[in-house]
Amino acid sequence: MTDYKAILNKPEYNFINTNEHLGKHVILLGLAGSYAYGTNIEGSDIDIRGITLNQKSDLIGLTQFEQYVDDNTDTVIYAFNKMVNLLLSCNPNTIELLGLSQDNYLYLNDIGQMLLDNKRLFLSKRAIQSFGGYADAQLRRLQNALARDTFPQSEKEQHIFNSVKNAMYSFNLSYKSFESGSLEIFIDKAVNPELETEIFINAKLNHYPLRYYASMWNTMSNVVKDYEKIGKRNKKKDDLHLNKHAMHLIRLFIMALDILESGEINTYREKEHDLLMDIRFGKFQNEHGTFSDSFYDMMREYERRLHYAAKHTDLPDDPDFKRVQELVMTINEKVIRDEI
């Protein structure tokens, strides 16, 4: 089993110990993203999320601090008070930090454990909207990508071709005949046996300033680039993104069901691992890039279960603000008393 805690010993994570907002104020650090869900593959980025206590000056002084972001290591560490507000709304990207597999917590002190011990305080019917909203966003991304992907190729080519023709028209209008000569670009039967048509140029220039020619060349180069887009797409890359959107859609449904049906936050999806990886690796995708009926049947079944769970959940409409506030005051009082 990989010892992820050793990651923090790498030099690029020194900021956790040296930054004034972090250091002894950090109460929890954990894996996020695919490693947290158990859906990581070779080459997956290691993302870290965490919580740090607000400083005394943030609580009773004039300073403000909400989060620390280190783009180099894909690390985001939230200030405690901001995190509490996100947890109260059952924000999927933050509530999942309270339900990691124990091995995926890279650092956890007594105050961090106190927060985990009280995680159910943050669960409410607000999860219906928050997880549902995130799932809808994933579904829209999936549908939009599929719409782009399955749009008739002839129509996509015509759209690009029209933009090329417009550029050529503007170019020829300016350069077809001028004082130093003439330039004309046009589409004709290809010389290259691998192509049907390609762009040609008729050129005659005399004593023409090079700096002007460089500008014309840039215009012509852009026309060629647009023309070469016709009929091409990075199918492998696009399919990877499509399948990832589809996987996260199902994962969000499953996590939401856990919260609504049993009041549990289970970020690491051990039971559904094989299903999620099958989706990620394209086993529900057809050869044309669309998704199989079985995928949509599964999605509709999860939607049905989510609607049922939303109506019958035992969770309260809203979190118990009084108990949450007591917890927050207890923890923040430790900061004020220099007991961290």
Automatic annotation (TrEMBL):
It comes from the Bacteria. InterPro entries: NT_sf, RlaP. GO terms for molecular function: transferase activity. The keyword Transferase applies. Keywords: Transferase. This is Nucleotidyltransferase.
